[in-house]
Write a structure and sequence with these properties.
Order of helices and strands: EEEHEE
Distance between the termini: 22 Å
CATH superfamily: Nucleic acid-binding proteins
Number of strands: 5
Length: about 100
């Protein structure tokens, strides 16, 4: 997730949240993430970018995958703290 704050003309701050889906291949890491993280936790993910393409209905579809090589839990969500408006509470496992 990328969270960018913008200062409005009236002096207030507005956030512009951008969510990224990452791919985790390591089974132990997947199990640890499921057991130890929840929506709203602050995490740090490091990895690599993999570009690919495939054919669908005669058209070439280009993809960009964010492959996780390092996953860190930085802080647990604090009850009562604001959550981003578009928080996605699903944990998506993507196997290749």
């Amino acid at each position: 997730m990328e969270l960018i704050w913008h200062k409005q003309d009236d002096g207030s701050w507005d956030d512009n949240t951008h969510w990224n889906t990452v791919t985790v291949f390591n089974e132990r890491t997947i199990e640890w993430i499921k057991a130890n993280t929840k929506p709203g936790d602050l995490v740090h993910v490091r990895g690599r970018i993999r570009n690919g393409s495939y054919e669908k209905d005669g058209d070439t579809v280009y993809t960009t995958d964010l492959i996780t090589t390092e996953f860190l839990l930085l802080a647990k969500h604090q009850p009562g703290a604001p959550q981003p408006k578009d928080a996605d509470e699903r944990l998506i496992d993507k196997e290749a």
